[in-house]
Amino acid sequence: MTDTLTAPESGATTKPATKPARPYFSSGPCAKPPGWDAAKLATASLGRSHRSKIGKQRLQYAIDLMRETLKLPDTHRIGIVPGSDTGAYEMAMWTMLGARPVTALAWESFGEGWVTDAVKQLKIDPTVIRADYGQLPDLAAVDWSSDVLFTWNGTTSGVRVPDADWIPETREGLSFADATSGVFAYDIDWAKIDVATFSWQKVLGGEGAHGVLILGPRAVERLESYTPAWPLPKVFRLVSKGKLAEGVFKGETINTPSMLAVEDAIFALEWAKGLGPDGLIARSDANAAALDRIVAERAWLGHLAADPASRSKTSVCLTVEGADEVLIKAMASLLEKEGVAFDVAGYRDAPPGLRIWCGATVDTADIVALGAWLDWAYATAKAG
Questions:
Q1: Residues 6 or more apart in contact with residue 74 via CB below 8 angstroms
Q2: pTM of this structure
Q3: pLDDT value at position 13?
Q4: What span, in angstroms and rounded, lies between the C-alpha atoms of 330 and 116?
Q5: Which residues contact 286 (CB under 8 A, 6 or more apart)?
Q6: Would you place residue 12 in the very low, low, confident or very high pLDDT band (cuts 50, 70, 90)?
Q7: Are 244 and 182 in contact (CB under 8 A)?
Q8: What is the tens place of the pLDDT at every residue in 83-125?
Q9: 120-155 burial string, b = 16+ CB within 10 Å, else e?
Q10: For residue 158, what are the contacts with CB-CB under 8 A and spacing of at least 6?
Q11: With bands split at pLDDT 50, 70 and 90, how would you rate the model's confidence at 10?
Q12: Are 112 and 106 in contact (CB under 8 A)?
């Protein structure tokens, strides 16, 4: 499948003949896995208590699938918690920070959110290392005698850490990775990660509202040896009588989960297990490469993240020549009206541009088909 539309500089506004079969390019919630159908979801746990035998079994099964697919070592615990990735990350911050100095890295809006929490809510006066949208901070400048907060993949800027090599094995502080657009899409060295969080609604294409909290042994040690100075809401409490509440990591959730969302996640995880971690990464890589070719062939398109080594392969953020909010809104509206691309405007806090999800649940053929429609939308919006 190739793009045949004349370049928008020529004023072509003819609609392309081929549409993406699945126009779901939102960066969260993301496209469902190929072949997904609500009728395929298991339903025996619905209408049952999450503390019933079947409820606990299904929650534990979801945890087991996540461990297997992520190749997570037995040293790390996995818990399903409320509040999506935000709830999981704030749970980690509220329960573990304050024991030592904190360094926070921010190069997009969610990283800035963790800075705000640390400064205004926890009042711990962190060292903040920032970079503009499209850039990565100087990772070599991080002081690992402190706890370090960072996003593995900046969903709103399209910038990611290239790997975990910058995290020392002999670190004194804990590494806190907001990995919601990174897990299942990159090869993560779990020995370097003390705390990781994500939500099913990103790379797995699951439903929102539930977060996943992964704790390494050093994080567990912190929880059991340190009591923060501030009060903790019930949904944040991971310790009972000085010991980790192990039930949280065996499917005994702190509050009531949606078993429908759990079954939806199980469907996605079984699909992911069938591909394996390498297969999931390969799908994301192929999608990102297809979008790279589209960008390279168009003078009016560019990558917000200039350095390919730190460019996201999931939430890919694009610059558009001459774009402002009005132009981007017009382009996104045109694409949605035609049913060829939903939710592709960049994040509201980011520079005006497009954001195309290239995670594993997207089919490469749909990325390829999108190119000509971007030409059409750009030419039409500019002409209008």
A1: none
A2: 0.95
A3: 74
A4: 32
A5: 364
A6: low
A7: no
A8: 999 999 999 999 999 999 999 999 999 999 999 999 999 999 9
A9: eebebebebbebebbbbbebeebebebbbbbbbbbb
A10: 134, 303, 304, 305, 311, 312, 315, 316, 317, 318, 355
A11: very low
A12: yes
Is 105 in contact with 111 (CB distance < 8 Å)?
yes
Please, are residues 129 and 104 in contact by the beta-carbon 8 Å criterion? yes
Q: Which position has the token pair 């200039």? A: 306
Tell the burial category of 348 from Cβ atoms under 10 Å away from its Cβ (0-12, 13-18, 19+).
exposed
